[in-house]
Amino acid sequence: MIFNKNGLFIVNKPINWTSNDVIRKLKSLHKFNKIGHAGTLDPLATGILPILINKATKYFDYFLKLNKTYLAEITFGYSTNTFDLEGDIIEKTDVLPKNLLDIQKKINLFEGLIEQKPPIYSALKKNGKKLYEYARNNEKVIIDSRKVFVENIEIIKWENYKLLVKIDCSSGFYVRSFANDLAKSLNSLGVLSKLSRIKYGPYSLEDSNFDINEIENLENFLLPIDSILKNNKSYIFDKDLEERFFNGEVFSDKNISVDILKNTELKIYNIKEEFIGLLIYDPIKSFWKPKNIIK
After folding, report:
1. Can you give the residue range of the structural domain that contains 172?
2. Domain end among 195, 219, 249
């Protein structure tokens, strides 16, 4: 039986599951027209994994812009080739950070707009080839740094050379790289030993209230598509405007009076208050046009 509803599931991904394992599990329960995840989590990580269902897959790109919050544990004393526990140990050290004040000073350097080099064991592409493919083939590759934004890093716990921190960051930030870089800044070595994504844009772990191993009635856990666009303004179309919207027509000031919302993406609802897509403003042509129609 095909699952025809549109929306998303906020899955609390279990440890030792890949993101694709979650997809396969859901596919074993139902047939979907379309299904995909937004924001891969490594197997050893837990936490929020959004699963987009059917027409919600049109909104995948919006997750690329969302900020995230992680709980991360860093263990000092050794390093691996993957910067986490999945890799092979490549070096050990007896030089371990002992002063929490020194750790805090170094952490402060990782806040704000920073340059970060992604780990080589990642799916990012260089010259059309994924970085981990270079690593597995023992090929040398120059990894370019990228600008990422870190809003805040809070120390939660420091015990037995294990550091637990909460990180509020932009998309594109690699916690594994941070663990490696922080340890090096302290003249030590370290790996990411635990990771949980506890917030993803407007979603928190509280939005994931089912166990992927025991789930039965999927519809009870489906969130609406427009929950992705929590902070966007909305506009209700009457039947005539709705039909024109579905036909892909454009709208001018004569049709709608939303001058104050120009240059934003406007959530559009029909008179039944059903979400039917977005309206975006074209500043060059001075009109609004439909985007990601849900019909």
Report:
1. 68-195
2. 195
| 24: CATH | 3.30.2350.10
**Residue in 21, 42, 84, 259 annotated catalytic:** 42
One domain for residues 113 and 186? yes
Write down the pTM of the prediction.
0.91
pLDDT average, residue stretch 265-290: 92
Query: For the ranges 44-48, 79-83, 216-220, which has the lowest average pLDDT?
Result: 216-220
Q: In what order do the strands lie in the sheet with 287-291?
A: 234-236, 265-269, 275-282, 287-291
Is there a contact between 29 and 1 (Cβ–Cβ < 8 Å)?
no
Question: Given a cut of 90, is residue 208 above it in pLDDT?
Answer: no
Domain count, the chain: 3
The mean pLDDT of the chain is 91
Neighbours of 254 (CB within 10 A): 6
**pLDDT of amino acid 261:** 61
Active site residue 42: yes
